[in-house]
Amino acid sequence: FNFNAFFEEAKLIGSLVSMSARERIKAIQKMPETMKKKREIRNKVLQEITEKSRRRGNQCDCCAQCVRRMAVSYRRFRNSLSEYFHLLQLWQKTLKAIGGKFGTGVLSYFIFLKWLLTFNIFSFLINFSFITIPQFVAAKPNNLSFTGLEIFTGAGYFQETVLYYGFYTNTTIRKTENSASYNMQLAYIFTVGIYFVICLLSLVFSMAKSFRRNFINPQTYSGQASKLLCTWDFNITNEKAVKLKQKNLSTQIKEALFEVNREVLNFSFKERFVHFVVHLAAWVASLGTAVAACAGVYFLSINNLQLFMKGHKNDLEGQAAMLVLPIVASLLNAFIPFFYSWLGLLEHFQNPRHQIYVTVTRNIILKISIVGILCYYWLNIVSASESQCWETLVGQDIYRLVLVDFIFCLLGCLFGEFLRRIIGTTVCVNLGMPEFDIARNVLDLIYAQTLTWIGIFFSPLLPGIQMITFSIVFYVKKVSLMMNCQPPRKVWRAAQMTTLFIFLLFFPSLVGVLSVIAVTVWRLKPSKECGPFRGLSSIYAAISVWIEILKNYPGSKWVVWIYQNLFQGALFFFILSTILL
Predict the structure, then answer these.
(1) What percent helix, strand, coil does the chain show, rounded to 5?
(2) Is the pTM of this model over 0.85?
(3) Are strands 172-173 and 182-183 parallel, antiparallel or unpaired?
(4) Could you tell me which of 494, 496, 99, 490 has the C-alpha nearest to residue 258?
(5) Which residue of 112, 280, 421, 478 has the lowest C-beta tally within 10 Å?
(6) For helices 438-458 and 352-377, what crossing angle results, to 10°?
(7) How far apart are CA 295 and CA 307, in angstroms?
């Protein structure tokens, strides 16, 4: 056996394997060997290439299999985790039932209500954790007696509790002499401020996401075949769940078909002129009603304050007379929207979405105007009154407004939708069962949330009260919807309505609230005898005092730099003015 020839051949084959296919063919052709020998060399080279490829393939297959297994395991874990959290979501089955029977328009109201509930839960948790719990350490005993009327008035016994601004101390809290200190002034400002920043960012992000999904990439006319053929979940085996899924899918397809097949009517010049006159008259009537309502609320609030300051400061029965203002405001908010809905029927809108847009606009003008008049009354009249603690007085007013609005919401379900169903099914059969008024109910939620946001500063635990009321409203509205209302006669897609709801919650609701809070913090003088900011020229002065203290600590120079260059600079006030104005 010739070892030299063997090693030479192995070396030759190795060099040929490393060449490209074209270079390998040319090299074999140039060899001074017989054709048989060249074929043997070629076959050995191909065999070596095949074995190397197999070895690399086995290594790659092992790596690829490991990656695939990890990816599959991750997907399974993510899906199982998603299903687990999906099961934990609040009211998930109820929302599916509502969407399947009444469509996405009515469903959008309940989703919006659930969304607002999360805002209040978050606000209550942070306020209770960073403001209320520390106050318990420095709390003084409450010597007032509880009679039960305080639940409706918010005064009396509640006035000396953590429910209101005036009860909180302005001192630095220490559990023991050697324990760490807790500055209630800074805790109050930063807790409320950070919450509003989070709300602002959340609303902007949600609004942008909804706008992109429903307006920029709506995909209104695509995907119906895939929805019909590929949407069904074959894991569903329960008969009740199958029927609910069928109804939900049927409703979605009807909504999509209505958008595609909606007729565009061509009106004559005379008909268009008549429609214009009707729309103009409806707008004049709606705006005139809103102006009259605001004037009534303003003069009633002035009269109530005068009665309170004359001799009922500490009289609980006298303070009960203060319920007149929230009752009148709730009556206006309850009955004028019915007038707006009637105007919408007279205008004969071709598209139900357009009717809802117009009705929502009129309702938001009414409700925000009433809230604006009340804010003017609180910030310019109550704050300048002789009250010992005007912040607590404002908190009590907002508490009564929230409570009475909640009571009227429950009464509206009972005497509005229930009696309407009785009349429509027994007395006047032609009327039939009522439809769920999406615009009016959504604006009621925005009105209630606006009051809660304003009241957070004057009553830190108000979100907890609103959290309870929203939970009750959800179940009452759900029962009333199932028992008293019929599905919409015109089925239509309401995905874009969600964007409108979020936008209205952002502007004018949240932007207006931020304006009120900014005026309270920067311009108004706190009460001298109550609250964490007593004795200061303004609430914002607490930040200035804190910054002066930090200047003495070298490790806190970066905080001072941020304050001086960002919050005291012209850029900050320009951005703030741009947002608020």
Answers:
(1) 80, 0, 20
(2) no
(3) antiparallel
(4) 490
(5) 280
(6) 20
(7) 19
